[in-house]
Every structure is written in structure tokens, then in C-alpha cells.
Amino acid sequence: MRIFKKKKKIHLPDFWHEYEDTFSQKLPDDINAIRFVVLDTETTGFDYEKDRILSIGALSLINNTIVVQDSFEVYLDQYYYHAKNVEIHGILRDERKESISEIEALQQFLAFLGNSVIVAHHAGFDMRMLNCALERYGLPKLLNKVLDTSYLYKKTLIYSPLLTRKEQYSLDELAEKFDIAKKDRHTALGDSYITAIAFLKIMEKLKKKAKFSLKKLMS
Questions:
Q1: pLDDT digits (tens, 9 = 90+) for 8-29
Q2: At what angle do helices 102-113 and 14-21 cross, to 10 degrees?
Q3: Phi and psi (nearest 5°) for 69?
Q4: HSE on the CB side for 122, CA within 13 Å?
Q5: What is the CATH class of 29-218?
Q6: Which CA distances in Å does 105 have to 47, 49, 57, 97, 129?
Q7: In angstroms, rounded to a whole number, what is the distance separating the alpha carbons of residues 75 and 155?
Q8: Mean pLDDT of the chain, nearest integer
């Protein structure tokens, strides 16, 4: 006789269900109609368990155009800082930037994000930091499809046994390659803007390749 264990019902907040409901709408087949959200996070360091997100910046991109009025930027209340990283991103604990709690930031970000396709440079890091933050509040991982500009850039390069392709390309390297100004480098929204421009340049190159599609892009 088999005994079936009753699954424990997990109660999630309304804002998560609202985010989850956006995925009932299928992404458009036309890549120009898809909303991409280009994002970046600034953090206290690179340890997924110990470090925390200091700021999240994101831009909306539709039909090869950055939608300037549809952007997102938030600073988080955090009490764990690395002095050496502050020198890079310039976010100080005693700075008078308007900041909110981590859970409030996540709630606002999910509302902005919806079912859009995420674009980020070295996306694995940002996604892991965001998912770790969600996990702290008993929330599931992000559901969105994700594109990494570092990986996509490599797809634009012509393969040759005589040329050595790097395993990873930095955002600075892409900015130099595509002649993108680095005025607001190392701010979440500034890096999102650089990533968005690089993504558009990469897409121009990839669209020239045969049988280009989002499905092929995601593979």
C-alpha cells in the first residue's frame, strides 16, 4: 500500500504571484517586440552568501531602442561593506542617498521586470546575487530568460585556429570595442546603459547571421 505525503503549501507574498502571473503571457515571436531589461547590480563583494546588493539599475529596451523613461534604479539599506569595493562603486554607508530595505527593493524590481528577457554582462553573477537575496525571504528564483553580453559577444567573433578567443570579456573591453563612453562606469544604472549599447551593437552583428532568432540566441 503506497502512502502519499501531502505536499506542504508554501505561502508566497502577493507581489511574487503578480510577478509570476506575467509569465502566463507568451513572449512575442518577433524579436523586435520583445521587452529586454538590461540590468546590473553593485554589491559589497563577490561572496554569494556573505555579500549583499547595494544597488540595482536597469533599463528597458524594445525594438532596438532604449526606452529612457522606462528605467529602474534603487539603493538598498545594507550594513556590510568592503572598503576596497567602495573605492570602485563609490557607494558609502553614510552617503545621503535615499535607500530602502532589501525586500522592498526586490518587490519594486520584480514589478519593473515582469516576464522580460534579462540582459546582463557576466549575467551569472547578477542572477546569483538576486536569487540569493530572494532566497533570504523564502522566495523562488527568478523565472526570466537570461542573455549574457560577454557570451553573445563571442558569438560575433570569427573563429580561426590562428586567433585565440578569451574565455571572458570585461565590460570595459566591450565599451572600448564599440566606442561607448564610460562616464558612469561602476554605477548600476551606468553599467546597465553601457551593457545596453553593447547589446544593441552585438545584436546588429548577430542579425546578419543566417537563421537568426531569439531561440537561437538563447541556445
A1: 446 899 999 999 999 999 999 8
A2: 20
A3: -75, -10
A4: 14
A5: alpha beta
A6: 20, 18, 11, 14, 13
A7: 34
A8: 86
